[in-house]
Amino acid sequence: MASPPRPRRIALARIEDNLLVLLLVAMIVLAFVQILLRNLFSVGLVWIEPLVRQMLLWVALLGALVATREHNHITVDALSRFLTGRPRSAVGFFCDTFATVVCSLLTYATFQVFLQEFRDPKLGQIVTGLPVWASLATLPAAFSIMAVRFGRFAIRNLKDSLRGAPAK
Amino acid sequence: MIPLLALTTGLCLLLGAPIFCVFAAVALLGWHADGTPLSVVGTDLFRLSSNFILITIPLFTFAGYLLGESGAPGRLVRLSRAFLGWMPGGLAVVSIVACSLFTAFTGASGVTIVALGALLLPALIEDRYAENFSLGLVTTGGSLGLLFAPSIPLILYGVITETPVSDMFLAGLVPGLLMVGVLCAYGVAAARRSGVPRTSASLRELGAALWEARWEIPLPLVVLGGIYSGFFAVSEAAAVTAFWVLVAEVLLYREISLAQLRKVIRDSMVMVGGILIIVAAAMATTNYFIDVDVPTRIFAFIQKFIGSRIVFLVLLNVFLFVLGMILDIFSALVVVVPIITPVAQRYGVDLVHLGIVFLANMQIGYLTPPFGMGLFISSYRFRRGILQITAACLPFILMLVLSVLVITYWPELSLFLVNRGGSPG
User: Fold this and answer.
1) Which residues of B touch A61 (CB under 8 A)?
2) What is the pLDDT along chain A (168 residues), one digit of tens a residue?
3) pTM score, two decimals?
4) By CA distance, what is A31's nearest residue in B?
5) What average pLDDT does this structure show over B258-287?
């Protein structure tokens, strides 16, 4: 795992970062346009609000993906703050394994929801051309990548705790 | 098997597993034990996209990050100095006012201590304020302003408890001013004690400071004025703020390059993703807790020991104070609020008032050892030992505790603006 990151991973990381930037700028612009329309011309575009709400979900998932990649999620660090070396790696292994399992289960749970809606679309479309199932699909996609990433951290921590290499 | 897994989950929380995973695990485990298909958790997570008010979180967070990266902190300090610097204890008052305004916009994420504290601390010491007073002041300033619009914790509390966010903004105003006022009074007294020389006011400097900040001065006026007068919905105010800050810092001041902007957006959205994924998972957990009547059970349990509202409030204060020592504000909000609000309501505590009490307590939590985030950021930023910072904060903590007691036992202080019907003067 200490080998230099593979090109595919770097490419994925770059896509995530750029999508995050793009989504936020789009949210700001859309929300602002809506205000202008409402206050200046007393009209509103009906598709803006539902679309922006979906974008919020995507921002949340992408942000969480990047946070996972950088092992930067919000945690209770009251105890782990004081650990160093092998105990820290061992605890890290335990927590990352836990996170891997949870994210895998979440992938399963959200995939079920997606599949149900995909087979029998009851919720219809968010905006014309964007069915709800397409947005639902982002959930299992995100959680599966998170599971892989936590798994990778778990393996690294396991190796470090066995070898006694300095943990980050 | 299930108790064992529940135990593992609790252990993981303490050992530092991601909080969203812990919540999700509780929901998954709970529904599994209940015999309900796990897909219910998936549906709950998707509910993140059904709450429009949540878009205020990325918008305000981005604006706050961008302000912190730009020259805005320097302009804010200069302007406050030009306005208030001539008063006795002027710079102390300046620090308190500037910090609380800045924290309201950036959230108490440590940005204030990093961006403003670095400017204020040397100035305070140069002005002959005692070093420990100055350290305590800038560290306290890092979480002051949490009760003012548009702070993210206020919004989150509104979202979690389904209270109108605009009510929370109104309710926080007077209690927040109380805290600011108490600290200002202390600052003036401290200035007297250490014989801080007074500076005279300069119209020329005031004019220059005003001119320098011309693109930013309208922001708090438009946003706060818009929210408090009811002209803007909170989500609209967020969009205006984000757009305004973007235009002002990138196009008008030209202090942020496009490459920096990309980094600011990315970093702020990672923070937002970290918060929102917890909110999503917490919604799933709450749904389960409500389904199995956890609040009712807790109420039934504590009712045996606590008879009156006052006793409940006293214990709530103690509980929240300790909670603030251990958990950071976002975790505390999503973990504890959904459980205590139904209980508090049965004791006749108003939801809006409870939120203010909760956040006021959490604000102190930033400063209390052993895990107060403000202490660590300040220690790191100013290169002082954690013990010195803690000692420096003690008088401030004491005063904030007194303010919290007033806020807790005088509900009207929080509620009278809300009850006036949402259109304060």
Assistant:
1) 273, 277
2) 455 667 888 899 999 999 999 999 999 999 999 988 988 888 888 889 999 999 999 999 999 999 999 998 888 776 777 888 888 999 999 999 999 999 999 999 999 999 999 998 888 888 888 899 999 999 999 999 999 999 999 999 999 998 876 544
3) 0.89
4) B239
5) 91
- Give the pLDDT confidence score for residue B421 in this predicted structure: 62
pLDDT given for residue A52 in this prediction: 94
Tens digit of pLDDT for each residue in B354-385? 999 999 999 998 898 877 888 888 888 898 98
Looking at CA atoms only, how far is residue B400 from chain A in angstroms?
Answer: 24
Q: Which of residues 98-157 of A touch B (CB under 8 A)?
A: 98-99, 102-103, 105-106, 108-114, 116, 135-136, 139
ipTM of the complex: 0.91
Q: What is the 3-state secondary structure (H, E, C) of chain B?
A: CHHHHHHHHHHHHHHCCEHHHHHHHHHHHHHHHHCCCCHHHHHHHHHHHHCHHHHHHHHHHHHHHHHHHCCHHHHHHHHHHHHHCCCCCHHHHHHHHHHHHHHHHHCCCCHHHHHHHHHHHHHHHHCCCCHHHHHHHHHHHCCCCCCCCCCHHHHHHHHHHCCCHHHHHHHHHHHHHHHHHHHHHHHHHHHHHCCCCCCCCCHHHHHHHHHHCCCCCHHHHHHHHHHHHCCCCHHHHHHHHHHHHHHHHHHHCCCCCHHHHHHHHHHHHHHHHHHHHHHHHHHHHHHHHHHCCHHHHHHHHHHCCCCCHHHHHHHHHHHHHHHHHHCCHHHHHHHHHHHHHHHHHHCCCCHHHHHHHHHHHHHHHCCCCCCCHHHHHHHHHHCCCHHHHHHHHHHHHHHHHHHHHHHHHCHHHHHHHHHCCCCCC
Using a CB–CB cutoff of 8 Å, tell me whether A12 touches chain B. no
Distance in Å, alpha carbon of A3 to nearest chain B alpha carbon? 25
Interface probe with B: pick from A102, A119, A126, most Cβ of B within 10 Å:
A102
- What per-residue confidence (pLDDT) applies to A166? 56
Q: What distance in Å separates residue B296's CA from the closest CA in chain A?
A: 27
